[in-house]
Description:
By secondary structure, this protein is of the alpha/beta class. It contains 34 helices and 38 strands. It folds into 6 domains: 8-189 and 341-451, Response regulator (Rossmann fold, 3-Layer(aba) Sandwich); 192-336, 3-Layer(aba) Sandwich (Rossmann fold); 490-594 and 726-774, Rossmann fold (3-Layer(aba) Sandwich), CATH 3.40.50; 599-724 and 827-851, Rossmann fold, CATH 3.40.50.2300; 856-882; 889-1081, 2-Layer Sandwich (Alpha-Beta Plaits). Its cofactor is Mg(2+).
Amino acid sequence: MCVAHRPPVMxxxxxxxxxxxxxxxxxNSSTTGNACGNMTVHxxxxxxxxxxxxxxxxxxxxxxxxxxxxxxxPNVKQEYARALVAGFNASVNSTMxxxxxxxxxxxxxxxxxxxxxxxxxPYVVLGELKKEKEKIHNYxxxxxxxxxVGDVTAEHFxxxxxxxxxxxxxxxxxxxxxxxWNKNLYxxxxxxxxxxxxxxxxxxxxxxxxxxGFMYLQGVSFGDEEYRLTANALSNIGRELCGLFTVKSxxxxxxxxxxxxxxxxxxxxxxxxxxxxxxSPLHDTKEFLKRMQTEEGMKKVxxxxxxxxxxxxxxTYKETVGVTTRRGKSPIYxxxxxxxxxxxxxxxxxxxxxxxxxxxKKEPAGKHHSIQQHHYDHNDxxxxxxxxxxxxxxxxxxxxxxxxxxxxxxxxMDSLYKQRRYMIDDLVIGDFGGECEGMAREHGAAxxxxxxxxxxxxNRIEDGHRLFPLKDGSLMLASSRCYRDMPQLxxxxxxxxxxxxNNAIATRATAAFTDGASALTGRxxxxxxxxxxxxxxxxxxxxxxxxxxxxxxxxAVTAVFGVVNDAMLSMSNVVFIDPVTLSPRPKVARRxxxxxxxxLEQQLFVIAKNAATQGSDAVSALIRSKDxxxxxxxxxxxxxxxxxxxxxxxxLRDSDRVSGRLPPDGDVLLIGLAASDIEPLASHLDxxxxxxxxxxxxxxxxxxxxITSAFKGRPGAERLLFATNLPHWAEGNAMSETVRxxxxxxxxxxxxxxxxxxxxxxxxxIQSLLSRxxxxxxxxxxxxxxxxxxxxxDDMQYGPFSEKCDTWDAASYLNMxxxxxxxxxxxxxxxxxxxxxxxxxxxxxxxxxPSIIYEKRGFLGLTDxxxxxxLNGALFILVLAIAGSALMLSKIFQDARDNRRAPKxxxxxxxxxxxxxxxxxxLWAAHPTLMPDAVEAHHQLIRSLIVRYGCYEVKTVGDxxxxxxxxxxxxxxxxxxxxxxxxxxxxxxxxxxxxxxxFELQKAEAGxxxxxxxxxxxxxxxxxxxxxxxxIGIHTGLCDIRLDEVTKGYDYYGCTSNxxxxxxxxxxxxxxxxxxxxxxxxST
Length: 1084
């Protein structure tokens, strides 16, 4: 405890320096002083360096924290400095300050005037400390600075900070150069690198710019590293900058006029749609911004700026306002490191506003500042600086929360890095951490991290100083990354949905679909979950195609989702993912259209099968569609498959009513349901219990509210039927993983509709697809769907999709469209509307995947089967005449694909083998004449071993094989023999080995890779490698086994196939990788 007499007191100094420009600063004022100056903290200790001789809070009663305000920079407007200091003072003077500081600890602010040249230097601070009779090299003091302002100023302060063990608290800098691990710098905002990533992400994912430029200045240590990072990030997603503006500049002089003009002319010729401006806030950057906003041809170019350039945007706007009002102006977006003062969605901002109002009431504009009440509501940039200052004060109070930390400056500095996280209401700053030992980093510790900001905000600037938050632009980084490499930006899928504004049904349907799909769009957390984006395009129904074409000419559009009309679906230059058609129509058999929901044809097969099973004598059809003739023919063909006679088929006009056209009993197909049909239909079903009516799924989903309102509590709900592959969207405690995820993402039960779940399931399918994609364009999306073939997301499955035609199949020759399988709905069940109201009711027909097979007449009146027999016979004779060897290969292929060898029992585990040739793309590019023979030999070797071990060739995709085996031992033996056969095969050339050798060396030169064999002696190398290198992955488990109606072979779906494929993907050439399940299955 403290002794009775007062010991000599030494002051421990805490110098805090904020980034604030200002002039006319006064010294030694109280916390109500003006908004410019310097901050220094003095903490009282006794001569022994112990806090009152004890380490408990109650012992110390006289700790004074003097904050020296070092906020000044001649290149920064005084108004911003005053705003920042006012925010800090509002925090310090808050009524909560005394509650949050330990007893006996108080804050006192001292303002420091800049030096004779108007700059804040270390010598100015040293001189101020001498006024307090402090010895700066006396290590019983604790100086810490809040600031300083600017990268160059911070660099000037660093030697003194290191020598004296001082911490610069919340320095304000603009580039990445100064953002490195240094215990003397304590940043509370996100880094410039994070701001750059937020700007780049916004340009690519929200603005969807195809041509993006970059601007920075050379020679000022600002922007060089950011330019390199931008180029690398774009390269990773298959993009590049369209242009670069850069000139040599300096802090004291402008760039050479001729050099500036030449650089500008060259840059303007690249015609950028947007520019990331990462120049230092100097005259040359200001001149660039002025030209971007005034020169013809640039006025619509999007400008993306880091927060530090807010220092010059208002002046730039004022200088160009006359020109921009005549010619228009460039949209300007700016990143931010804290929320705006008007963004009351945050609890912290609400408290800031209360503290700010109280402070300005107590200290009105006058001697110490010129800020009026509610000024932060009228000038958003000033308000943003106020919030920054307020947050600095809040963090400082938390940092001083324990007097034990104030014992001496080393103790205080160390305390700042003891895994510190500051929670300012709902804003989080941190984690801060020092040097780590052992596995601490791997176990989640923040190591060597002196920056705490993990969120970047995005705002739109208007009138130079008005900021408007852009929620879709926010970026959230994991605090554990800190100074690791710049987080990877993955290529986004830029989806578009069209809101047909003059169609009420379409508008409601679009809103419901996006309720589910938008829950999965990117939220700024990076990774594969931040790759799917949906953007709204509004158009009248008749102008949808023109609107889409205009959008595609100006922005990136990967695919169209949601509601479409017939005119849109006729477009062949855009990809459609599961189009929701406003009226029934047959599927579009083109490679740019993909169906995840059951096609009308699939639904008819499910319905007709049920009608036949129930012993229906005949089916009537009422059809309302622009393609009524095509649908009628489809109905006739499906009915014939199931020997189901058609009673009557009636084509309805849009104005026709169903009243009087429905039979008194039997099954009815009502294709093209209208809202006006629903009440008469409900009444008819109530009156005639022998009638069942089938409607297409989209007819039901588009009129969901009308149908549920009309049929609730009525007996006819049991006999209004539709087919779907969706689980129940509104089932509580659902077993479906998709539904559980949907309910978590969309907690509002009023939005639990079939179209909302469809949107969510579509989004999950896209996320699953993207996880295995690199570059994303419309073409790569199409290719990826066909290559992956089967898409699995949670408990939903789609596929197989296929566009490969068998050239030996006569039917393929006659109708190439039949070779494109662009529909993937499986497990389609038949529901009644009664089940919509009560999920516990069983389906009318359990889920099944229909086989779409017709018997149709073709050329010369022959059925396809007869025609195929004739042509195949002729082709068979031709093949015999060409070569006997071809028969041998064909025999091997048929044996490998012999369905008798296929595992078929769904309750028995299947062992799946996936193979792939390593670097096959590069090999094809290097040896286009050698690879066909090499791949042919590769296929022969694999197929011969498949036959030998009694396994089954499921399919090939390019040069990859998927093989199914009943026996895991046979699978492993097959894989081992494959590698040995490849090693000992006579490939007839060493060119393949030479190329693999070169690939290894090239990868090593790129950095971060040690070639495992390329540096070996050539003799040893030849013993290890020979010819094609194949990687193999094996996994054992249960599969969803189905007979594919296209290939007439068996296929295997589910987690087992996915894991086997991923196992192969992580293997190297020449390796066989087994999963744990496959390994343990060898002992059973």
